């Protein structure tokens, strides 16, 4: 079944010139890019996007990192897009992510892990509404 998911190509990937690499992997897989915007997350959007994490100890440095520079926000669609993008992304901790995945190939951190992808249909719709309210 076709689904939509929110993807953030994070500030570390933009700084390192890996935006095209990450976007290319999504496109070559056969996923569709429905929306794309280069944008810097502000504090309010960070708190809303990461609502389930705001009270966690890792949140302050995560917020600092995610608001540190531009990221590329995308709406991506395709058959089972939520699970497919998470599989392409690899494990959250890039040190443990499998080679062949985006995080496994390019990351060495739990925080600077290049990509965010919605983890369920409910979070995809919530996150798309936050980032792209007109879609
Ligand atoms: P993301 O998919 O953006 O969603 C939540 C983020 O929190 C996650 O990617 C990680 O980058 C970050 N994260 C999760 N757990 C930890 C942790 N234990 N320490 C640091 N960052 C974390």
UniProtKB/TrEMBL annotation:
GO CC annotations on file: cytoplasm
Residue ranges of every copy of the Nucleoside diphosphate kinase-like domain listed in the record: 2-135
GO aspect biological process, one term: GTP biosynthetic process
Reactions catalysed according to its record: a 2'-deoxyribonucleoside 5'-diphosphate + ATP = a 2'-deoxyribonucleoside 5'-triphosphate + ADP; a ribonucleoside 5'-diphosphate + ATP = a ribonucleoside 5'-triphosphate + ADP
Enzyme class: transferase
Main location: cytoplasm
Coiled-coil residues: none
Residues annotated for ATP binding in this entry: 10, 58, 86, 92, 103, 113
EC numbers: 2.7.4.6
Functional note: Major role in the synthesis of nucleoside triphosphates other than ATP. The ATP gamma phosphate is transferred to the NDP beta phosphate via a ping-pong mechanism, using a phosphorylated active-site intermediate.
Cited PANTHER family: NUCLEOSIDE DIPHOSPHATE KINASE (PTHR11349)
Protein name: Nucleoside diphosphate kinase
């Amino acid at each position: 079944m076709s689904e939509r998911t929110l993807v953030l190509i994070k500030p570390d990937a933009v700084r390192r010139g890996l935006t095209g690499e990450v976007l290319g992997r999504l496109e070559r897989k056969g996923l569709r890019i429905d929306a794309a915007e280069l944008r810097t997350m502000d504090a309010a959007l960070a708190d809303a996007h990461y609502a389930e994490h705001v009270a966690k100890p890792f949140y302050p440095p995560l917020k600092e990192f995610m608001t540190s520079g531009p990221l590329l926000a995308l709406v991506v669609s395709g058959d089972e897009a939520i699970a497919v993008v998470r599989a392409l992304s690899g494990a959250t901790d890039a040190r443990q992510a499998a080679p062949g995945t985006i995080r496994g190939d390019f990351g060495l951190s739990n925080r600077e892990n290049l990509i965010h992808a919605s983890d369920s249909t409910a979070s995809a719709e919530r996150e798309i509404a936050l980032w792209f309210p007109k879609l």
